[in-house]
Design brief:
The chain is an alpha+beta fold. Helices cover 19% and strands 31% of the residues. It has two domains: 28-137, GTP Cyclohydrolase I, domain 2 (2-Layer Sandwich); 149-266, GTP cyclohydrolase I, C-terminal domain/NADPH-dependent 7-cyano-7-deazaguanine reductase, N-terminal domain (GTP Cyclohydrolase I, domain 2, 2-Layer Sandwich). The protein is elongated. It holds the Pfam family QueF. Belongs to the GTP cyclohydrolase I family. QueF type 2 subfamily.
């Protein structure tokens, strides 16, 4: 039996994996922030010298409250949490927090938006952009595929299912390209439940070995880590092993509990993620 002390990840006392009583009126204390630096230490990252900028884009599909006459309002919401915020927000706690609006009476959409923004800023420790769109405004969402090469069509043998950065290689002349895969699967850091997503790599630098990149992405298949942490690990491993001049990595994770999380990390502000949902979202 191993006597190693388990690494702290910040979610040990979160609501994940625990029975939770649902509250139906405003309850900002339900939000559970997690220090990003705990996992960034594993990657050798310093808070004041991150190799990337970016954000975590959250889409919320189950938001409702009561107007002042008691009539329900239903809406979509979007939250943008900057990657340089000191804390991320644990997803189940955000789900519970949003559900706590179900019987809360609010004057208008602006009031709800301001309340949520205030609470997310306090939890994340940085400015968080919040946009709420009631369904009466008929919001539209569309899925799309990245403009690039899908690695999933490669025929190859794979036998590694824990992150293996030594699978990454780059060589030859500089290219600019976008590579992506729908085969990303990792597991929740606390519960071990599967997380499914698409991961996109956009870079300028020596040509990456495509088979090696696909094997590397599949190697996360039994790995336990939060969405944001997986994307940062991929970014840092590619940066270290392949030395691109410019690099952007983002993921589109499928929803759980009425939320999907879409982390985006880039070395340059001009290198942006494509708009649009992944088809499974």
């Amino acid at each position: 039996m191993s006597t190693d002390t388990p690494r702290l990840h910040g979610a040990e006392s979160s609501p994940l994996g625990r029975p939770a009583a649902y509250r139906d009126t405003y309850a900002p204390d339900l939000l559970f922030p997690i220090e990003r630096q705990l996992k960034r230490d594993e990657l050798g990252l310093k808070a004041d010298d991150l190799p990337f900028i970016g954000e975590d884009l959250w889409n919320a599909y189950e938001l409702s409250w009561l107007d002042l006459r008691g009539k329900p309002v239903v809406a979509l919401a979007q939250f943008r949490v900057p990657a340089n915020s000191p804390r991320l927000i644990e997803s189940k706690s955000l789900k519970l927090y949003l559900n706590a609006y179900n019987q809360q009476r609010c004057a208008d959409v602006g009031t709800v938006q301001a309340m949520i923004a205030c609470d997310l800023v306090a939890a994340a420790g940085a400015a968080v952009a919040v946009r709420i769109t009631p369904l009466t405004q008929r919001p539209q969402r569309s899925s799309s595929y990245p403009q690039g090469f899908c690695l999933d069509q490669l025929e190859l043998d794979i036998d590694t299912y824990e992150p293996a950065p030594d699978l990454l290689h780059a060589h030859g002349s500089e290219v600019s390209e976008t590579l992506y895969s729908h085969l990303l699967k990792s597991n929740c850091l606390v519960t071990g439940q599967p997380d499914w997503g698409m991961l996109v790599v956009r870079y300028t630098g020596p040509a990456m070995d495509r088979a090696g990149l696909l094997r590397y992405l599949v190697s996360f298949r039994t790995h336990n880590e939060f969405h944001e942490q997986c994307v940062e690990r991929v970014f840092c491993d590619i940066l270290a092993r392949c030395r691109p001049r410019e690099l952007a990595v983002w993921a589109r994770y499928t929803r759980r509990g009425g939320l999907d999380i879409n982390p985006f990390r880039t070395s340059h502000a001009g290198l942006q993620a494509d708009e649009g949902m992944e088809v499974r979202q």
